[in-house]
């Protein structure tokens, strides 16, 4: 974060806009591949991961629109950014609801995850890209004085990273142990995390808490 403290605000907003645009492009590709892999393998967890990619893309579009507006007009429209921030918060709640409902359905139905080579590649790539992307967004947000919109986008990216980790762990552990309940259990943990981040985004209270 210290390396960005002396960077002009306009340059920081441009950097945030570039990160948001990269997020949109990456998650569109990631989501399409995840949904295709999940559909072909009958793998619900990958379908859920693809939905998360779509939600994160929507969040990044909202952030990109607000950052582009800042750069065009040179001012922060607080009411518009508060509305955008609350829409981002809603995306957290939608993700949490989906993961929770799908996890319960999997447990009741006794669903078992399957293996997909394409899905594994997508998940591993997410585990490499998302931590770097979330960290870069957080640094920009903190350099802008704790910008709640950018920090919310960084938190959304962290949720994507955690969901990819839980999905991958569920698939691997099932292959090793045959315990299909591990996948929905991991999803429940992510749902709790998403709700917490959503509430903080709604109230504009996101802080630098990545060390948790």
Structural class: mainly alpha
Provide the β-strand percentage band: under 5%
Terminal residue distance: 17 Å
The number of helical elements comes to 6
SSE order = HHHHHH
Indicate how many domains the architecture comprises. Answer: 1
Q: What value does the Rg take, in angstroms?
A: 17 Å
Mean pLDDT: 80
Q: Report the strand count.
A: 0
Helix content: over 70%
CATH topology, anyone?
Alpha-lytic protease prodomain-like
CATH superfamily: Cation efflux protein transmembrane domain
Outline the biggest β-sheet: none
Summary keywords:
Alpha-lytic protease prodomain-like; mainly alpha; 0% strand; 6 helices
Brief summary:
With 212 residues, the protein is an all-alpha fold. It has 6 helices and no strands.
Structure report:
- This protein has helices at 9-41, 44-73, 78-109, 117-143, 148-177, 182-203.
- The model is unreliable at 206-212 (pLDDT under 50).
- It has one domain (7-203): Alpha-lytic protease prodomain-like (Up-down Bundle).
- The radius of gyration is 17 Å and the shape is elongated.
- It has six helices and no strands.
- Helix content is 82%, strand content 0%.
- The longest helix is centred in the first third of the chain and has 33 residues, at 9-41.
- The protein is mainly α.
